[in-house]
Amino acid sequence: MKLAVLGAGDVGRSVATLAGDYGHEVVALADSSSAAVDPDGIPVDDAVSRKEGGDGVGTADPEEVFETEYDVLVEATPTTLGDAEPGFGHVTRALEADRHVVLANKGPVAERYDELRALEAESAGSVRFEATVGGAIPVLSTIEDCTPQAVTAVRGVLNGTANFILTRMAAEGLDYEHVLAEAQDLGVAEADPTFDVDGTDAALKFVILANVLADGGFSLEDATVEGIEDVPGSALELAAEDGRTIRLIGEATRDGVRVGPRLVPENGALAVTGTRNIVQIETRHAGSLHSSGRGAGGPETATAVLSDVGRLPDLERDD
Amino acid sequence: MGNEPVDRERDPETDIGGGSESESGTETETETETDGGVRAYTVRLELVDEPGELLRALAPIADNGGNLLSIHHERGNITPRGHIPVEVDLECPPDRFDDVVTGLREAGVNVIQAGEEHYGEEISVVLVGDLVENDLSDTLSRIESGANAAVLDLSLTAPEGTESVSSARVRLAIDSGRSNEALEAIRSLGSEKGLTVVEPLLGGESA
């Protein structure tokens, strides 16, 4: 497949770099101000080094991406809330041109799922979004294999930053602010970690899961979200007395989405440590399935994008 | 894992700060019977902390044909009302058990649990906030009444003194199948009092 990659952050660059290993060709890579476009395949390494050296990815206008011939638009621009723009606009243009879309950007599927599905229904292209939930962990494809009707709930840890902070607080008996500063020094937490620690990032992922289970109907405002900012070290100590610990746990069902700090058994499956993520898929006929792994990171998330590309049907091209 | 059944029994007609009024009283034969048809019962009492109280409370049991098996005196665990909970295991023929409870009540003993109703679930929650300044005993009695729960124990830490943020872990016994209802009540109490409520994760195989 010919890939046009929008977004040249960690995920976009990794998709471009790894695409060849998966047998795909990158015909465009764009950041917000420039693009490298070549219908015969761009020199990925050059574009990536330019970006990493602090320049734009290329000399073309990002608009030219849509004018070149591609099979799959990979939308890896930063997630935005509310109208999910400009990501949603990019997806719309690709679907209206009967191209496939693979999302790493959570905005369109968390905030405008029903509109997205309506656009897809009118298009010869399909939309896939494995990379929006749990990075490298195959969450959505597992649900797809089980069929969404046979899945009753999805629970788990889908924010590595919050999980790292809670793990360190419990292990070292330190307070939230202290561990947050440490996480920032280590590069585990961003300079502005708000969406990680207030539960928004995890909530977006569980909203996407609820949309998949219920075939739409949810956006971020439907989720009940609490973060970990008010959990002191002493609460983790008390939990440990009882053989438990506290994790930022999300739950998605057909009835709704909830994210908040919860007590879980200290040695239970959901009490993963460090930045690791885990999901528990509760099925109607087969009990619970657990899948754990790296929930973020450029190459990790890129593998989910490229697996999605591999699942796409061939487009019937008449041009 | 959050749902260990606890084998406590209580009388639905007695008051535990507004405990469950669910239908019960119909006796289900769950314990093994001995030849003489004697069955084991657990009775929870609340005693005033005065000399002689325990002895006075136990007399009506023997007087009514009950045989004492064990006495668990939870001295360290004073109730919000300042009483000491005592758990008494006894055995007696089923038709004498009502007489035992009546005898205890007539002697002025506060019987808080007796009979056949079982608590099916035990859960823990962690509360965080200005717990002490915010009338902890009121919080606990309202959890008991609003959430139809019995507080089994409480662990409190206030690393920066009682005037600052403290955390408490509360272990609760809840009627089977009513955990969600109880947690909802605790959640709304938490938001009213500005407390962070860390709930257990119920459901699935993780709870």
TrEMBL record, chain A:
PROSITE patterns: HOMOSER_DHGENASE (PS01042). Residues 35-61, 287-319 are annotated as: Disordered. The active site is at K205 (proton donor). InterPro entries: Glu/Leu/Phe/Val/Trp_DH_C (IPR006096), HDH_cat (IPR001342), HDH_CS (IPR019811), HDH_short (IPR022697), NAD(P)-bd_dom_sf (IPR036291). Keywords: NADP, Oxidoreductase. It comes from the Archaea. Residues 138-309 form the Homoserine dehydrogenase catalytic domain. NADP(+) binds at G7, A8, G9, D10, V11, G12. This is homoserine dehydrogenase.
From TrEMBL, chain B:
Residues 24-34 have a biased composition (Acidic residues). Residues 1-13 have a biased composition (Basic and acidic residues). InterPro entries: ACT-like_dom_sf (IPR045865), ACT_ThrD-II-like (IPR044561). Residues 1-38 are annotated as: Disordered. This is ACT domain-containing protein. It comes from Natronobacterium haloterrestre (Halobiforma haloterrestris).
